Amino acid sequence: MAHRVTRLEVRHSVPNPVSSSDHVAGTDTTTPSIPDKKSVGYFRPQRIAEVYAAVEAILQEEVAGASQVCRFLNVSRSAFYAWKGANSTPHEKEDLELAPLVRTIFQRHRRRYGTRRIASELSDMGRSCSRRRVAKLLQSQGLKAIQPKSYKPRTTESRHRLGYSPNLLLEGEEADGIDHLWVGDITYIPVDGRPFSYLATLMDRFSRRIVGWQLACDMTETLVLAALKEAIRSRQPGPGMIHHTDRGGQYAGAEYRGVLRRAAMRQSMSRADNCYDNAFMESCFGTFKTELEMTEYANHTIAFREIGGYIAYYNHERKHSALGYLTPAQFETHLDRSK
């Protein structure tokens, strides 16, 4: 960008006065000079409109966003947009209206929304905007969404003698309504001063809603029982629902299976050493950790608060492409209304 501004400086530079010794008879040797400057901050045409024109020219080359260019040239971004609005086409004026809306949505979702979800939310507001246009508006403001990491499967340590349940999903059992299939898993949460805390969740496979969760300092049967009991209290599922997890010993304990039996749930487990049987839940944890920008929490209490806040966001605010860009809560409400 500095190189681009330097070229603009040449365009707007003022000729130096020429002494008598510089003249040759019949020849004008006056030439534009380029001042010896330590920074491009020297660039300042006499008319502020020329600075705004320079900002616009740099933006057209897509080397930086409007915020960065305006800061670089020491001009107000809002004043630049006001000038641009007075000299814009109808399409450009609409971009000026859409830009702050895009920025507000982007910031409200803490950089978790990309072009698809932002375009969907604009549509909810009655503003039609293509993904390509959203991308340009994001770029012009120097905004970049969190990039999801690729899914890396892992296997569960399942060396126990508590017995395993069959994988009912291999028999063609799939979710065709809410509370027909819950999937669960455990993941580690890094916390300062201790090895880890552990998060157990249960998700409704049809609506993608987190129906139960718990965070604890150890990975025991008590952890997964808390998540299961919360899910049963809040959902009251009917008999015959499938409960699918990996083969971890926590899910094979006598107390856990007793709760499943009393709730008339059918237990299903992944095949031995086959991480892909429960890949959906593990991939979901990848989304959690990416969008929370999870590194290491200061303590267990802070981790509990942050994760609880994110799960509420995930259920009630985050649009899911698989749900037609509805939140899980919206999706379930639509299902109830259609019955």
Short note summarizing the structure:
This protein is of the alpha/beta class. The chain has 12 helices and 5 strands.
Query: What is the CATH third-level topology name of the largest domain?
Result: Nucleotidyltransferase, domain 5
* Assembly status: single chain
Q: Please report which band the strand proportion falls in: under 5%, 5-15%, 15-25%, 25-35%, 35-45% or over 45%.
A: 5-15%
N/C terminus separation:
58 Å
Number of strands: 5
Name the overall outline: elongated
Helix content: 40-55%
Strand order of the largest sheet: 3-2-1-4-5
Structural category: alpha/beta
Q: What order do the helices and strands follow? A: HHHHHHHEEEHEHEHHH
Please tally the helical runs, counting DSSP H or I stretches of 4 or more residues: 12
Query: Low-confidence runs (pLDDT<50, min 5 residues)?
Result: 8-41, 151-156
Spell out the CATH superfamily of the largest domain.
Ribonuclease H-like superfamily/Ribonuclease H
Rg computed from alpha carbons, rounded to a whole number of angstroms:
29 Å
Annotated CATH architecture of the largest domain = 2-Layer Sandwich
Number of domains: 3
Look at the structure and give the CATH class of the largest domain.
Answer: Alpha Beta
Average the pLDDT over all residues and give the rounded result: 79
Tell me about the biggest sheet? Answer: 5 strands, mixed
